[in-house]
Amino acid sequence: MPTLLLDPTGERSVVERTQNERPPSLKGMTVGLLDISKPRGNVFLDRLESLLNESGIATRRYIKPTFTKPAPVDLRHEIARECQAVIEALAD
Amino acid sequence: MHDIADLESRGLIGVFVASDVFVEAAAAQSASLGFAPASVFVQHPIQDRTDDEMRVLAEKAYAVLVERLTTNPS
Amino acid sequence: MPTLDELRAATINELGDGIHAFVKRDCATCALVAPVLASLVHKSVVQTVHSQDDVAFPKEVAAIGSITDDTSLRRSYGLDIETVPTLVRIENGEEVGRTVGWSIAEWSSFVHRDLVAEFGSLPSWRPGCGSKNLDIGMPEKLAVALGVTSVRSRRVELASAEDEHEAMYARGWSDGLPLIPPTEERVLRMLTGTSRRPDELVAVVPPDLVDCTVEKVAINAVMAGCKPEYLPVVLAAVEAACTSAFNAHGLLATTYFSGPVIVVNGRIAADIGMNSGVNVFGQGNRANATIGRALQLVIRNVGGGVPGGIDRATFGNPGKIGFCFAETESAGWGSLAEDRGIAAGVSALTLFAGEGPRGVVDQKSRTSESLIRSFAVCLRSVAHPKLPIGFDAILAISPEHLRTFQADGWDRARVRNELHALLQLPGADIIRGAGGIDEGVPEHLVNAIIPKFRPDGLLLTHCGGDAGMFSAIIGGWVNGVEGSQATTVEIDPWR
């Protein structure tokens, strides 16, 4: 049985959690590239990094210790401190 | 996906990339998380691709990735 | 979603014409009348016996196979059975009568048979027992289970992997502290705290100017941790907050420190266990803590007033999560509510746009004349010693300090008048530049005498623990048309 709660709000917005608002462009932002440590992901991210840099967008690289668990909290703190956007790759 | 959900809760905009065998699993995870992060799926397989093939996949995914991270042009 | 009436009609329809008995095994009277029921069933006088807890009871009836399982209490609830045993007669698809408990005379009349002949050896009457659908918590559980509620709020379904507390945080419903999940059952229980209908409009809540019903207040009151008996106070606080005089919108949008401060007067304070004594502004009392919090959550969730959104307070204050206390009225020194025009003995609350309390220490004054001067000099610093008129204040006088005033026969009016008299500020002291301080009033007022507080700007309360020669000042936000006026409303405990 799913848990049902009564909505305490004025019901002016949708009930589902939504993604954060997107900016018009990535200019001026630092994009984090998070490698989940599955093979070949690094080559994929290398190319993304070049493409972003060519467009004048700053990037930083990160790598998770293992793809089997969520990223450790220290790594998440680091990414959140240093970046405004993040691309995580590559799950297969 | 959990990482992207966590980072979005910290104010970042995020997107994850997975091979297209993950499409259903990703949908199920979103449903159980109660949150659907931005996603881009690339063509399976991944493991036995050459470096050049991986780069092509990245190039093909690039435009969609940017789209997921920015507001759609009207 | 069926209404109660629809459920009742459906239940009658399902049962069909005839006499229906409702019993539970855990009832001495039901056990007593078991042979009577068996006989009546055997003679087809009673159609069915509905058992609320055990389909093998009464065994005499079970033996002839005329027991229906109502352990779900669906039919008992549908027919609003209050006592067992109850006999209900249905004719032509309508209930035409019922008899409750056991009385040989009433039963004989009800079933149109002389039961004395066969059952005269039984006691002639016995009261029944409580019907199981009225067990504590059952009415709300059943209402939810049967989908018979008048709840109108949108239901939010949590995802299977979502922890219910994280889910509420993730949806932005929290003020930072954990919330009680507002399930339908909990909200229905909360609504028993008022006789108002759930869909009644309480107020239009700023900043989004959203219609707020009794139900929405109840949902937030559940989340805050309130008990149902606190609900009338929360409803009154929401009403007061949304008046144009109180100006909740302005209060939310200001960069100033203030938030709503609720002072409760009257019998309701003790009835619901509020604290007016030791640590009155601090933690530890459920009513004090949750009533203030419920108001804040309503403004946050219903009105959309969140910090970082419209709330741009530079500092805020810890009381913004909730600041609510009761006044001590046992000292024979009147009450804040009476000061503000409420008849003696009527429960009421006053809502004030206040910052955190600041302390006044005076451990040496032995006369009212001296003590009042301590208060005056400390009150002068509300907002800034050189800023008059624009800010109101609550002065909370402790028992030890009040003793001094009462010994000298000073009532509230005297205390207030003395303070106003002592707080007439010479313009020369408060104009810009005076004292080397740029802040102040315009220089042309150099020869004026300006009162620190406007005539109604000083609110007196009496509270606090018995030990401690301290009192407290709660400074206010700006008054006047663009600011906030303290607002007093009655609390009707039956509303």
Please provide a written account of the structure.
The complex is a heterotrimer of chains A (92), B (74) and C (495). Chain A is an alpha/beta fold and 92 residues long. Chain A contains 2 helices and 4 strands; from the N terminus they run ββαβαβ. The longest helix of chain A is centred in the middle third of the chain and has 14 residues, at 41-54. Chain A is extended. Chain A starts with a strand and ends with a strand. Chain B contains 3 helices and 2 strands. In chain B, helix 2 links the parallel strand 1 and strand 2. Chain C is of the alpha+beta class. Helices cover 33% and strands 21% of the residues of chain C. Chain C contains 19 helices and 21 strands. Chain C has helices spanning 4-15, 28-42, 59-63, 74-78, 104-111, 116-119, 138-145, 164-170, 184-191, 214-224, 231-241, 248-253, 267-271, 286-302, 336-339, 368-379, 399-407, 412-422, 427-430, and strands at 18-23, 46-51, 67-69, 83-84, 86-91, 94-100, 102-103, 125-126, 129-130, 155-157, 201-205, 210-213, 259-265, 324-326, 348-361, 391-397, 424-426, 449-451, 458-462, 470-478, 487-490. In chain C, the strands form 6 sheets. In chain C, strands 13, 14, 15, 16, 19, 20 and 21 form a 7-stranded mixed sheet that branches. Chain C is elongated, with a radius of gyration of 31 Å. Classes of the chains: A alpha/beta (92), B alpha+beta (74), C alpha+beta (495). Chains in contact: A-B, A-C, B-C. Strand 1 (4-6) of chain A pairs antiparallel with strand 10 (155-157) of chain C, so a sheet runs across the interface.
